[in-house]
Design a protein that fits this description.
It is built from 15 helices and 11 strands. It is an alpha+beta fold. It folds into 3 domains: 121 residues, Triger factor/SurA peptide-binding fold, CATH 1.10.4030.10; 99 residues, Chitinase A, domain 3 (Roll); 107 residues, Chitinase A, domain 3 (Roll). Helix 4 packs across helix 6.
């Protein structure tokens, strides 16, 4: 047995020596050990080539080779740590996602796949290497998102405060045409009575009462006889008590009643100049849903819905009666089939298409969704001002991005600090 070992060892030694003499080849070497992984010289060479290719495409200059190498090693070190964490939590980037990402990269650089591969080859890079690099970058992005998001905490007060700042910035040059009603405290009526009267007036105004008429009739303010009309003003030109109540309300908004030291006030924004508003359409619809089953086929559901539609149109039954009797959507059936005011985006595509395109008061033909077969009728559409909500969403995104970038930096530095790192190019390692 020992004789065979010596024979095999001699064979391999001879083979290696002979190979080395015949064709000297520079072997790949480990440059840095990172936990249980390594960074090879070939990894550094490939990364430098990729960096130079990207810089060339962007007409960007690069530092000298020694600085560039140090920067590349640091990035590879951080990438390796993050990829190890991705493996730990089970992040996988499948070929379909990878192919889609590479297709998008080609489109953004206005290249075909073939042109991209040719450019890589011209820069001594293989397409397989490029694919795996993109896979790694996607995995790093995914693990970073997963781990950093859980570190972020945004409280509602932060969102509200930033939304107010954004509103003030956008309102700096906005002009408002406002009307005003003032109900004063006096000896004749108690403060509670004045408050009740203010609530009554605001309710009437929100229901469409004429503001000018109400102002002339009830207001004790300085512009009462002109219908409470203060004309066009920027917020900085208004009385402070008015400016404090106006944020991003749009044309037609009734504000108040709100209290001051002299009484209660109600404002109307008659018109606005220069304010960017966000409006959405809400639809109030009602429907009847039939589920298919062993005893109710697709054809049977369509036939029954057509019969129900005919009864409603002929006046033999109301939509509400038919919904209560036949609809298999328990949430809306008890409400006469009504779904309430909703944005169409909340519905599945087929239902969304119907409520967006149907004229008000017209019943649709039977149509199928993932829930079953429906008929639907649009009862009303209305425009809703969502400027405040849009500003809060914008404020949240700004806060999230700020905190994400801060926390991402802290997270990767914590990961680096806890990692075992040994530089194999120096005589002494460090961790």
């Amino acid at each position: 047995m020992n004789m065979w070992k010596h024979t095999l060892l001699s064979f391999f030694l001879f083979f290696n020596v002979a190979s080395a003499i015949a064709a000297p080849v520079e072997l790949d070497k480990v440059v840095v050990i990172v936990n249980d992984g390594v960074i090879l010289q070939s990894d550094i060479n490939t990364a430098v080539k990729m960096l130079k290719l990207n810089a060339n495409q962007r007409h960007q200059s690069l530092p000298d080779e020694s600085v560039l190498k140090d920067q590349v090693i640091e990035k590879l070190l951080l990438d390796t740590i993050q990829l190890q964490e991705a493996d730990r939590i089970g992040v996988k980037i499948d070929d379909n996602r990878l192919d889609s990402a590479i297709s998008n990269i080609a489109k953004e650089s206005q290249q075909t796949q073939e042109e991209m591969q040719a450019e890589l080859a011209d820069n001594d890079l293989t397409y397989a290497t490029f694919r795996e690099q993109i896979r790694k970058e996607m995995a790093i992005s995914e693990v970073r998102n997963a781990m950093v998001r859980r570190r972020i905490n945004i409280i509602p007060a932060e969102v509200d405060n930033l939304a107010k700042m954004l509103a003030n910035e956008s309102n700096a040059t906005v002009q408002y045409h406002i009307q005003h009603i003032q109900l004063r405290f006096d000896d004749a009526d108690s403060k509670e009575a004045v408050a009740r009267k203010a609530d009554e007036l605001a309710d009437k105004l929100n229901k469409g009462a004429d503001f000018s008429e109400m102002a002339i009739t009830y207001s004790k303010g300085p512009k009462a006889l002109s219908g409470g009309d203060w004309g066009w003003m920027r917020k900085e030109e208004m009385p402070t008590i008015f400016a404090d109540q106006i944020s991003t309300q749009s044309k037609g908004a009734i504000i108040g009643p709100f209290r001051s030291g002299v009484g209660y006030h109600i404002l109307k924004i008659t018109d606005v100049k220069g304010l960017e508003t966000v409006a959405v359409t809400e639809v109030n619809a009602r429907h009847i849903l039939l589920n298919t089953s062993v005893i109710m086929s697709d054809e049977g559901a369509q036939r029954l819905l057509r019969e129900i539609t005919a009864k409603i149109k002929n006046g033999d039954a109301s939509f509400a009666e038919m919904a209560r009797q036949y609809s298999q959507d328990p949430g809306s059936a008890s409400q006469n089939g009504e779904l309430g005011y909703q944005t169409p985006d909340l519905y599945v595509p087929e239902f969304k298409h119907q409520v967006e395109t149907l004229p008000v008061g017209q019943i649709s033909q039977p149509f199928k969704t993932v829930h079953g077969w429906h008929i639907v009728e649009v009862l009303d559409r209305r425009q809703i001002d969502k400027t405040d909500a849009a500003l809060k969403n914008k404020a949240y995104r700004i806060l999230f991005n700020r905190k994400f970038n801060e926390e991402a930096g802290a997270w990767i530095q914590e990961m680096r600090a806890s990692a075992f790192i040994e530089d194999m190019t120096s005589e002494t390692g460090n961790d």
